[in-house]
């Protein structure tokens, strides 16, 4: 184990850089914070360093013993607060190598300019629960930001996330039923036997799905709403629709 108390330590400085997307892209690593997420990391995840607050060594002893001693950094509360992006750090985080993205078929989800980290994280969790193996992301918030990773509750490690343009994605989805969620679409509960494989598309929180993508879709569906409200939250909309398409058809 390494004990680190200085904020100027080279390892700490390197990890702090991972709070910036450019550095995450450059180094191919990201920060994972939270005991519950780290406890359940799949064996396939390559962890570079595990950081544990000195006062929490006993609390997290079962997690710590899973890692090689040379990967464990025991840090002061001051250092942990610098690495964390939460008001009250839990005292445990790690750095991990970004998984390689790939696409091997099956139903998919496409996110068009989704910008809220909480929405992205929630969508990841829903996709995992519904058996979605791949999420295509077009000009979205970085899925490897600390807020997205934390809100995904470990789902980030259980789904392929492919960052690409719609033009390239469209070519990969030849033969797919492209379904967009839009207020002007057919009531999803009146639609039966939706053709698979499908790609369910949800758009930007403020502007919805772009016209380019809408015009390329084979199916447009909507969620019925009672009451005077314009739309649902992007993550809620996708979750309701995805559960229906995955389990009710």
Give an overview of the whole structure.
- The protein is an alpha/beta fold and 249 residues long.
- Helices cover 31% and strands 24% of the residues.
- It is built from 10 helices and 11 strands.
- A 6-stranded parallel β-sheet has the order 8-7-6-10-9-11. It has a 5-stranded mixed β-sheet with strand order 1-4-3-5-2.
- The longest helix has 14 residues, at 234-247.
- The termini are far apart.
Quick overview of this protein structure:
Helices cover 31% and strands 24% of the residues.
Supply database-style keywords.
about 25% strand, 11 strands, elongated, about 250 residues, alpha/beta, 10 helices
Give a topology summary.
Blueprint (H helix, E strand, L loop, with lengths): L1 E3 L5 H8 L3 H7 L1 E5 L1 H5 L7 E7 L7 H4 L7 E4 L1 H7 L8 E6 L10 E5 L4 H13 L4 E5 L7 H6 L8 E4 L2 H7 L4 E11 L10 E5 L8 H6 L2 E4 L11 H14 L2
Parallel strand pairs: 1-4, 3-4, 6-7, 6-10, 7-8, 9-10, 9-11
Antiparallel strand pairs: 2-5, 3-5
Helix pairs in contact: 6-10
In terms of quaternary structure, what is this?
single chain
Instruction: Please give the order of strands in the largest beta sheet.
Output: 8-7-6-10-9-11
Helix content: 25-40%
Structural class: alpha/beta
The overall pLDDT, averaged over residues, is 94
Largest sheet: 6 strands, parallel
């Amino acid at each position: 184990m390494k004990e680190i108390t200085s904020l100027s330590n080279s390892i700490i400085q390197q990890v702090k850089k991972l709070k910036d997307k450019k550095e995450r892209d450059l180094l191919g690593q990201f920060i994972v914070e939270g005991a519950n997420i780290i406890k359940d990391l799949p064996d396939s995840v390559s962890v570079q360093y595990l950081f544990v607050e000195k006062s929490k060594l006993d609390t997290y002893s079962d997690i710590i013993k899973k890692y090689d001693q040379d990967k464990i950094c025991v840090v002061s509360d001051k250092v942990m607060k610098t690495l964390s992006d939460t008001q009250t750090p839990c005292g445990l985080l790690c750095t991990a190598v970004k998984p390689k993205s790939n696409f091997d078929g099956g139903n998919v989800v496409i996110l068009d300019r989704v910008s809220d980290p909480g929405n992205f994280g929630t969508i990841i969790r829903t996709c995992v629960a519904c058996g979605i193996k791949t999420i295509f992301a077009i000009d979205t918030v970085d899925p490897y930001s600390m807020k997205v990773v934390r809100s995904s509750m470990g789902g980030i490690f259980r789904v392929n996330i492919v960052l690409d343009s719609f033009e390239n994605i469209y070519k990969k989805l030849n033969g797919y039923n492209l379904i967009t969620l839009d207020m002007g679409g057919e009531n999803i509960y009146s639609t039966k036997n939706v053709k698979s494989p499908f790609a369910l598309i949800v758009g930007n929180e403020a502007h919805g799905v772009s016209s380019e993508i809408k015009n390329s879709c084979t199916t447009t569906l909507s969620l019925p709403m009672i009451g005077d409200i314009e739309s649902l939250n992007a993550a809620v909309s996708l979750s309701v629709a995805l559960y229906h398409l995955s389990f009710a058809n």
